[in-house]
Design goal:
alpha/beta, binds pyridoxal-5'-phosphate
């Protein structure tokens, strides 16, 4: 029987090989891409295994699920889930980076409760629908301005999830264009958080610097998150 360690190690090796191939195909290097292992729904014991395999960036979608794991395993903890105002204070207590900010009131509230510096990605909607979260491209400057005016938040870049009804290539090409325009006004926002298990290679070829990969490393999750 394969142990959980062997299962995760084997999956991780395949993902790392795919990252290698994708970066090579576009003349980038693997150290330009931060792999965030999305550990949502999986136990802290899996996070310990990832740490022993030298993966130290972890992504979570739910505060209640994440807080005890972040307390148990040191590393860089990312939050990429839907934000609820009443959870912001708790999220800020364990998260080092938040990928899913798309509302000014959340940025202002987060800045007030942050007990340490927090890196911020603004989530952009690539199809104009709010279904999978994200601000309209035309709203990004106002959001970026409030991050720059904050005391505790660092503007890192943009994040997006490819819409279900578009090819990921098409979606990430659009995202790259939005990002290149955005960076002219906000040069510190140089990072791009894009790509999940199904589409991280395409995201890398379109400039992703942070990929958020769950099921390809940890296996399928019981329920949709
Ligand atoms: C769950 C989730 C991921 C990881 O998804 P996989 O398909 O399991 O790799 C990445 N980003 C966001 C926003 C998520 O909610």
């Amino acid at each position: 029987m394969t142990s959980r360690y062997e299962e995760i190690a084997g999956n991780l090796a395949r993902v790392q090989e795919e990252i290698h191939v994708a970066t090579k195909s576009c003349n980038r290097t693997v150290d330009e891409v931060t792999l965030i292992a999305v550990t949502k729904t999986f136990p802290a014991s899996d996070v310990h295994i990832l740490a022993s395999l030298d993966v130290h960036h972890y992504g979570e979608n739910r505060d209640g699920d994440a807080a005890p794991k972040a307390a148990a395993v040191p590393g860089t903890w990312h939050f990429q889930g839907q934000i609820q105002s009443n959870k912001l204070k708790s999220i800020a207590s364990w998260a080092h980076v938040i990928h899913s900010l798309d509302e000014q009131r959340h940025i202002i509230a987060l800045d007030k409760v942050a007990p340490h510096r927090i890196g911020v990605f603004l989530q952009v909607s690539l199809d104009g629908a709010q279904g999978r979260g994200g601000a309209l491209p035309s709203d990004l400057s106002a959001l970026a301005d409030s991050v720059l005016q904050s005391t505790n938040l660092d503007l890192m870049g943009l994040m997006a999830v490819a819409p279900l009804d578009q090819s990921s290539d098409e979606a990430f090409e659009k995202l790259a264009t939005i990002h290149s325009i955005f960076k002219v006004s906000y040069p510190t926002a140089k990072y791009l958080s894009a790509g999940m298990s199904n589409d991280f290679s395409q995201a890398i070829t379109h400039g992703a610097t942070h990929i958020r990969v769950g099921s390809s490393i940890l296996g399928s999750r019981p329920a949709p998150q």
